[in-house]
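Sample pair:
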Amino acid sequence: MITLYGHEISGNSYKARLLLSLLNLEYEWVRVDLMKGEHKSPEYLAKNPFGQVPFLVDGGVQLADAQAILVYLGRQYGGEQWLPLEALLLAQVIRWLSTAAGEVRQGPENARLYYLFGAGTNINIERATQKSEFILTQLEQHLSTRSWLEFDHPTIADVAIYPYIALARDGKIDLDAYPNVLSWIERIKQLPGYIPMTGI
């Protein structure tokens, strides 16, 4: 039985939940109350010393980090469609996982944290807004010639990038100037097994 530890307003927790649902996998959801600091409790830190969500348990497998969880689920249960093994194809998907952890985190994810959770003391909102405009412009151009981030079908690349782009308005980032991005968001919402998240 798969168990996923997370929080309902965490975009990274949602990535894992979304892929589990797209793969039609049954799992147990364990809510970790971030507002009460449960992710920093000794019990949770014993499972995940980084003190972050999501955290996945699948039999003897224990795995932290949203991108790593997507890789595991994609290969273990989704096969070539969700994460190909051929070197170049694999690299093309992994590039977007790096983008999720880099530009998307520094841009829309940080902007959302700033406005939604008052994390203003350690987030430069001007920089986060600039980074958001940069990655959205890149995505808009990239999606002008394709339906999905890579190949002719969705992969874990799309799942990795989707949440914080779709949640951009929480960070006062306007998506109206990016019609290709908006169309891609709608395509993801139409996938069989899609589940929504508060704010999207």
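The mean pLDDT is 94.
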